[in-house]
């Protein structure tokens, strides 16, 4: 299995809702990432997990809460989001030291719309 | 913070022509990678070039790296309509095991 699977593909939520984005990989990668991408912009790093521990939080607002239950799963819990949080949320995985030639493997993303 | 800056921002060519995209970055790096993104989808890893390498080939792709100028180029030869996508360079800083930071990207349109 050489894929990163993200669910759901599309999500519309109200500003008072609580929802979760899910990401799964079975490539044995021990680093997992959340990126946020606005239209016509590059992906921006949000969080990094290395060996199931949060290693980087890029000053992301607390309404985004990441969780890594095990080495294959990564969740992003959403609560009280704002319309400006509408974006494509991308999950990626890699070997932790980044020395292998295959780089990061990205999922297809979750298109989030906050209304 | 953005590390890589690509140019041009947009490029339109005819099928069969070559496409060249450039990337500049600011700090010392371990490696530089290129990714492709079809509209609204995930990114696909194309090629990785290490800081001690100067050129690398993969199929119709040729990547060069000039660490003295902190720049890289991606050449796609004999382009096809299916190459239409956004292309991003990404770097990780030499200072440690840092995650990838992406440049602004080049939107390539290949016209059949």
SSE topology:
The complex is a heterodimer of chains A (about 120) and B (about 110).
Chain A: E1 4-7, E2 10-13, E3 18-25, E4 31-37, E5 44-50, E6 53-57, E7 64-70, E8 73-79, E9 87-94, E10 105-106, E11 110-114
Chain B: E1 5-7, E2 10-14, E3 19-24, E4 29-37, E5 43-50, E6 55-58, E7 61-66, E8 71-76, E9 85-93, E10 101-102, E11 106-111
Parallel strand pairs in B: 2-11
Antiparallel strand pairs in B: 1-3, 3-8, 4-5, 4-9, 6-7, 7-8, 9-10, 9-11
Keywords:
heterodimer, A: 115 residues, mainly beta, 7-stranded mixed β-sheet, 4-stranded antiparallel β-sheet, 11 strands, 0% helix, B: 112 residues, 6-stranded mixed β-sheet, 5-stranded antiparallel β-sheet, 57% strand, globular
What would your notes on this structure say?
The complex is a heterodimer of chains A (115) and B (112). With 115 residues, chain A is an all-beta fold. Chain A contains no helices and 11 strands. In chain A, strands 2, 4, 5, 6, 9, 10 and 11 form a 7-stranded mixed beta sheet that branches. Helix content of chain B is 0%, strand content 57%. With 112 residues, chain B is mainly beta. Chain B is globular, with a radius of gyration of 13 Å. The interface between A and B is medium-sized, with 29 and 24 residues.
């Amino acid at each position: 299995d050489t894929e990163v699977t993200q669910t759901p593909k599309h999500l519309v939520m109200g500003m008072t809702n609580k929802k979760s984005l899910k990401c799964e990989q079975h490539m044995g990668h021990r680093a997992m990432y959340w990126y946020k991408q606005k239209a016509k912009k590059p992906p921006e790093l949000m969080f990094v997990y290395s060996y199931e521990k949060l290693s980087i939080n890029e000053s992301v607002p607390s309404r985004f809460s990441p969780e890594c239950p095990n080495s294959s799963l990564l969740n992003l819990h959403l609560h009280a989001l704002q319309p400006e949080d509408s974006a494509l949320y991308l999950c990626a995985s890699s070997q932790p030291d980044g020395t292998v030639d295959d780089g990061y493997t990205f999922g297809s993303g979750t298109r989030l719309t906050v209304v | 913070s953005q590390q890589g800056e690509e140019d041009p921002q947009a490029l339109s060519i005819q099928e069969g022509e070559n496409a060249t995209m450039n990337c500049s970055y600011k700090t010392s790096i371990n490696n530089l990678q290129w990714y492709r993104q079809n509209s609204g989808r995930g990114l696909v890893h194309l090629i990785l070039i290490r800081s001690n390498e100067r050129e690398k080939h993969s199929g119709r792709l040729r990547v060069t790296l000039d660490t003295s100028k902190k720049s890289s180029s991606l050449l796609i030869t004999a382009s096809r309509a299916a190459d239409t996508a956004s292309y991003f360079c990404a770097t990780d800083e030499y200072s440690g095991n840092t995650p990838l930071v992406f440049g602004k990207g080049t939107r390539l349109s290949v016209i059949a």
